[in-house]
Each structure stands twice: as structure tokens, then as C-alpha cells.
Write a structure and sequence with these properties.
Layout lengths: L30 H4 L3 H33 L11 H32 L10 H12 L1 H29 L5 H28 L5 H19 L3 H8 L9 H11 L3 H18 L5 H9 L14
The protein binds fe (ii) ion (2 copies).
Length: 302
């Protein structure tokens, strides 16, 4: 981890920059948000940054940490060698550093802008993953958690790359995101390789059950967080007296299926390389969810 130790943010940013990328901020799909005055738009971008930081911290300290801690305890994988387990523990330690780095950034941004994060709203993803793991039962549950982490660790880099490349985003935020992206690029490779090592050796029944849940895990990661978005809009009751309605309209505007499939492509590509889609029933589930074009015709994942 090579994060910037001393982060100082100008308020307002001397660069005239913003704190988050409009292209990554779902609320900015809505015409009413696009037409807001400059001050409110800037503030909403700060709230989007806060939400992104909170989401990532909760993800990495929650399901990611639990899955990595659980690798040692997985039943039926005595062949997973110690080198892999040690690398997983190293990644777990890095995720803790990412959490600390993001919390520091959130404090700095709050100090610099006076915009407080949305508090007391759990990111929807955390609850959805918990429900999927518990719903899968004691035998399948730990595998669901691990494969959710393979999904999240193969998808996280895409957003980080887009954020660090946006020239309007203030350099302090881009520097932190850049440091995170470097680590996550390595994590992506590790988890893709882990999938490739695990999948062919799993029991066929487990592969089928797990494979059928993967489209839902991808959907959980990529889904809009309606509660958090609604709480952001509720800060402006004079403009958004009915935030839930705007959020629903944002959901309707949020990208045709092809865009969603492109967002999912890093995970889908990793699963294709592991052989997950060789099972036609599983391939059909991916196609039905919109993550691939069809059982036989898949998206290019580059
Ligand atoms: Fe991370
Ligand atoms: Fe990671």
C-alpha cells in the first residue's frame, strides 16, 4: 500500500475540481439533478464520494474480510496450498489498510467541505450478501461469501480506474484512489487465479448450486443503493420533496442492459476462464440475468 500519508484538501478546491466523478454518480443521470445549481451539484458529488468510501470500507471490512478469514476453514479444500492461503492473508491485511485510508480521506473531505456523510444507513449490499449467505445454508454459505468476494474483487478496479482518470476530480482524491487501484489490480489477479484453482476441483453439485447464484451476486454488487441515494436527496427537501420517486426514476435511467453487461464483464470474464459457464444451466442463468448475450454468445471482455 502506497497511500499518501499526509492528505490536505483545499476548501474550496484550488483546482476548481470536484470530489467525485459525475459519470459515476447515479443521481446525475436525472435531469432535475443535472439542472441543480453549481453549489448543490458539488455538494451531491461530495455525498457520492462519502457513500462510495463508506460502501468500500463496509465491503472490505465485512464480506471481504470474512471470506478471506474463512479460506482456511473451507471444507474439502486441503489441496489449497499454504502459499495461496498466506497470499490471501496478505490481501486481508491490505484491505484493512484501505479501510483506514478511506476513513482518513472521509474525515479530511468532511473537514474541508463541511459536508457530513450520510450516517445510520447501512449500504444495501451488506444486507443482501448477508441474506444470500444465510439463505444458502451452512454448507453452501461460506462458498457464496467467497465467490461474492471473487465478484467484488474483480469488479472494484473498473470504478477505481474511471475515478482516478477523471480530470475534474481533485488530485487528493485521485491519489488515494490510484493507490487503492494498484493494490486492487493485484487482488483481481489473485482472485481470478483462485477461482481457476478452485472451480474444477469442486464437487459438481456444489458447482451447479454456486454457479446459479453467481448472477445474483454480480447483481448485488452492481445494484443501485436506493436507501443511500434517497438519503442524499432528502438533504434537499425544498428541491426533492419525494426523494424515493426520483431514485426510482434514476433506476429506470440507469443504463441499458448492454451497459450493465459491460460493467459486469471483468467478473464474467474471470468466471468464463475458470470454466463456470461450461455448465449450460449456469450459462443460461448468466444470460437470463443479462450478464452475457446468450448461452453460446458471450460479451467480449477484453
Ligand atoms: Fe481494497
Ligand atoms: Fe481488494
Amino acid at each position: 500500500m502506497r497511500s499518501s500519508a499526509a492528505l490536505r484538501i483545499d476548501a474550496p478546491p484550488a483546482s476548481g475540481g470536484v470530489y467525485y466523478s459525475e459519470a459515476l454518480a447515479p443521481l446525475f443521470l436525472h435531469p432535475v439533478v443535472q439542472r441543480l445549481d453549481e453549489a448543490r451539484r458539488r455538494e451531491l458529488l461530495v455525498l457520492h464520494l462519502h457513500a462510495y468510501l463508506e460502501f468500500t470500507v463496509r465491503l472490505e471490512r465485512g464480506p471481504v474480510k470474512e471470506a478471506i478469514d474463512g479460506i482456511d476453514g473451507l471444507d474439502g479444500v486441503p489441496w489449497l496450498d499454504e502459499g495461496v492461503r498466506a497470499a490471501a492473508r496478505g490481501i486481508g491485511a491490505e484491505e484493512q489498510e484501505h479501510g483506514a485510508m478511506y476513513e482518513r480521506l472521509a474525515r479530511e473531505v468532511e473537514e474541508a467541505t463541511g459536508v457530513t456523510p450520510i450516517r445510520g444507513v447501512e449500504p444495501e449490499l451488506v444486507g443482501r450478501v448477508r441474506a444470500l449467505v444465510e439463505g444458502a445454508g451452512p454448507a453452501l454459505g461460506p462458498w457464496v461469501r467467497l465467490f461474492f468476494v471473487i465478484v467484488s474483487e474483480t469488479l472494484i478496479t473498473g470504478d477505481l480506474r474511471r475515478l482516478r482518470r477523471d480530470p475534474r476530480v481533485v488530485p487528493e482524491v485521485r491519489a488515494v484512489v490510484d493507490a487503492h487501484a494498484r493494490d486492487e489490480a493485484r487482488h483481481h489477479l489473485f482472485f481470478s487465479d483462485l477461482c481457476a484453482a478452485l472451480w474444477p476441483r469442486l464437487d459438481p453439485d456444489l458447482r451447479r448450486a454456486l454457479g446459479l447464484l453467481l448472477p445474483e451476486l454480480i447483481g448485488a454488487y452492481l445494484g443501485l443503493d436506493r436507501a443511500v441515494l434517497g438519503a442524499m436527496l432528502a438533504r434537499y427537501p425544498e428541491v426533492f420533496p419525494r426523494p424515493a420517486r426520483i431514485v426510482e426514476e434514476v433506476a429506470m435511467l440507469s443504463g441499458p442492459l448492454a451497459d450493465r453487461a459491460r460493467a459486469a464483464a471483468p467478473s464474467v470474464g474471470a468466471f468464463q476462464r475458470c470454466g463456470v459457464l461450461q455448465d449450460p444451466i449456469v450459462a443460461r442463468a448468466f444470460a437470463d440475468a443479462g450478464w452475457v448475450r446468450g448461452a453460446a454468445q458471450t460479451w467480449s471482455v477484453g
